[in-house]
Design brief:
It contains 6 helices and 4 strands, in the order ββββαααααα. It is of the alpha+beta class.
């Protein structure tokens, strides 16, 4: 995982849309009740138009055009959390996730587009497959956590260190759960300090580890 052994540096990020202030410790951002990995404070969205009637699509992602009701192609780069209408958090509501999955598949499944144009059939197959992949990825804690790291530009290597990497991931997820349960700013600050200590400890282990 790139830079995970770098000594934590604290800085503050203020979201331009909400004014919400968050503090970053070595890539771990924490606010009043949540912590997540982040490399960027801001995101941008590109407005798209319907491929058929050319009207502006108001929602992201848009599975269907509100004007002509035509199915739309998958939007490149849309996160699985947006597709499944879930909060960007490790401790998401899996029951809500499952409900969303069945709702989408009832409308997007290729069986519903047998009498439509070839293009619409192709879009249906692509959308249905993407929803299935998003659902399977977010359903299980480990694949969900790995995907969250991937969104932030951090990838676990497929190597003999995979067990250690997975353990590090689980440690980060435990920080999430602890912050969810924190009731006071003092508790949040203690968790932040413990997290900094954990990152420093892993840095020292990396330094002292024997070289191949």
């Amino acid at each position: 995982m790139p830079n995970r052994h770098t000594a934590p540096k604290a800085f503050t990020c203020v979201h331009k849309d909400t004014g919400h202030r968050e503090t970053n410790f070595g890539g771990l951002i924490y606010s009043a009740n949540t912590v997540f990995l982040s490399r960027s404070c801001f995101t941008s969205q590109v407005k798209l138009n319907c491929w058929k009637c050319k009207k502006l699509l108001d929602r992201t992602p848009s599975f269907f055009c509100d004007s002509c009701k035509s199915i739309q192609p998958p939007e490149e780069g849309t996160s699985y959390f947006k597709i499944m209408d879930c909060d960007y958090t490790f401790t998401l509501d899996t029951q809500k996730l499952q409900t969303r999955y069945f709702q989408l598949q009832r409308t997007l499944h290729p069986d519903n587009f047998g009498q439509k144009s070839v293009k619409e059939q192709e879009y249906s197959e692509s959308q249905s497959a993407l929803v299935s992949k998003a659902y399977k990825t977010l359903l299980k804690p480990l694949s969900r956590g790995l995907y969250m790291l991937k969104l932030e530009g951090m990838h676990l290597k497929e190597s003999t260190d995979s067990v250690a990497e997975s353990q590090f991931l689980l440690e980060l997820m435990e920080v999430n759960e602890a912050l969810d349960e924190a009731q006071t700013p003092e508790e949040v600050n203690k968790i932040a300090q413990d997290t900094k200590g954990m990152l420093n400890q892993r840095k020292m282990k990396q330094i002292l580890a024997p070289k191949d």
